[in-house]
Amino acid sequence: MSGDSSQGDKSQRNGVKNHRSALPAAMFSRNNISMWSVLKKCIGMELSKITMPVIFNEPLSFLQRLTEYMEHTYLIHRANASQDSIHRMKCVAAFAVSAVASQWERTGKPFNPLLGETYELLREDLGFRWISEQVSHHPPISAFHAEGIKKDFMFHGSIYPKLKFWGKSVEAEPRGIISLELPGHSEAYTWTNPTCCVHNIIMGQLWIEQYGNVEIINHKTGERCCLTFKSCGIFGKELHKVEGYILDKSKKKVCALYGKWTECLYSVDPAAFEAHRKSDVKRPEKSSTQSSNVEEEPDEMPPPEAETVQLIPGSELIWRISPRPDNSGKYYAFTSFALQLNELDAEMEHVLPPTDCRLRPDIRALENGNIDVASAEKNRLEEKQRTARKDRSKSNVEWKIRWFHQGSNPHTGAPDWLYNDNYWNRNYSQLPDIY
């Protein structure tokens, strides 16, 4: 379906809304644009404080990008349906891995949310509704809360990534707690995301890797899933790999997990997994800790040792990524789910608050292929935000956060942002004029 026809097709089949399968305009080529001219004075700085040309953006806010956690919501439903806690942990682990899968080849930068910006997504077909709000600008903090349509789960957290430029790469260190609650089992799980790194931002082909340790805790049973997202290594042997174990409350390994965050995740008996590892030929590999010594970074993305994950006999497939649409390369490497995030129709526009990302003029202009308008609007909005902040400081007026409040995570006790349960009442009076 072409971009034009998909924009106008809002019919419903069997009571389910048809979502678009393309954007109004293809992305612009970045081949003739030098990011070095922007970043050469910014080594070691936080990228959240650097103004980037709009050509390096994708037409989504970071709040919308966060919503891509929910692309594989069926894994939560599958966990809910299971009566075995280990199987539930497998599904939750797959959900955590799948959350970063859409980042593969996504080299465009999402727009920084404005203070007070919001995003809602109601997907009855997938069984959830989502609300997020930019609750802080310095430091940038995005809070989100999703719940099952049938109140069968709650998924919430706050994200404030620490972005650093290291010369040849940009590293995003995740900060913030992610929580998943399954009321039907009286269970709560918490974890954090791995570190994301974009290589070759100065010259060459951009490529992305995820690395670091992720620990998922079932706070009711004491079971844990300890995953390692492997850095690629000098020869690319570990490219995209993720592996680890599910441990019972006595720290005994009861299950091994392995796969690639770009592709799939399997479970297998720990003994079979360890026997397979011993039989694998060992090669030198990069430390899992990212170094600021740029000479140690591979200049080009190492070719993967195999196109697919090597299957261990007796393995069970837990999750496999959905194939991207054929037009993905034309539209910012978006998944089908991502293509739908910024769609806006008259019925939706009637109920949205004026702070919703879909109403941001710079994002809308970039999506429509109007890069000059997008750039001008981006600069206008940033200046408007700066002016509003100065006016508040002069009048001693504090910013009012609408849909979240600061508190303690109920499962870890760590500082967190908690949803106030008011958004879906649809009372949007006295909201700020941020656009």
Morphology call: globular
Number of helical segments?
A: 10
Give the beta-strand count. Answer: 21
Structural class computed from helices and strand pairing:
alpha+beta
Distance from N terminus to C terminus (CA atoms, Å) equals 32 Å
The percent of residues in helical segments reads 10-25%
Largest sheet: 15 strands, antiparallel
As a percent range, the share of strand residues is 25-35%
Low-confidence segments, given as residue ranges, are: 1-11, 283-295
Oligomer, anyone? single chain
Mean pLDDT, all residues: 86
Evaluate the radius of gyration: 22 Å
Short précis:
With 435 residues, the chain is of the alpha+beta class.
Protein architecture, described:
The chain has 435 residues and is an alpha+beta fold. The protein contains 10 helices and 21 strands. It has helices at residues 3-8, 36-39, 62-66, 74-81, 85-98, 270-279, 336-339, 346-351, 361-367, 371-395; strands spanning 12-13, 16-17, 57-61, 109-111, 118-123, 128-136, 141-148, 154-159, 162-165, 169-173, 178-182, 187-191, 195-199, 207-218, 224-229, 241-247, 253-260, 264-268, 316-320, 404-408, 415-419. Helix 4 (74-81) packs antiparallel against helix 5 and helix 9 runs antiparallel to helix 10. The longest helix is centred in the C-terminal third of the chain and has 25 residues, at 371-395. The chain is globular. It starts with a helix and ends in a 16-residue tail after the last strand.
SSE topology:
Elements: H1 3-8, E1 12-13, E2 16-17, H2 36-39, E3 57-61, H3 62-66, H4 74-81, H5 85-98, E4 109-111, E5 118-123, E6 128-136, E7 141-148, E8 154-159, E9 162-165, E10 169-173, E11 178-182, E12 187-191, E13 195-199, E14 207-218, E15 224-229, E16 241-247, E17 253-260, E18 264-268, H6 270-279, E19 316-320, H7 336-339, H8 346-351, H9 361-367, H10 371-395, E20 404-408, E21 415-419
Parallel strand pairs: 3-4
Antiparallel strand pairs: 1-2, 5-6, 6-7, 7-8, 8-11, 9-10, 10-13, 11-12, 12-14, 13-14, 14-15, 15-16, 16-17, 17-18, 18-19, 20-21
Helix pairs in contact: 4-5, 9-10
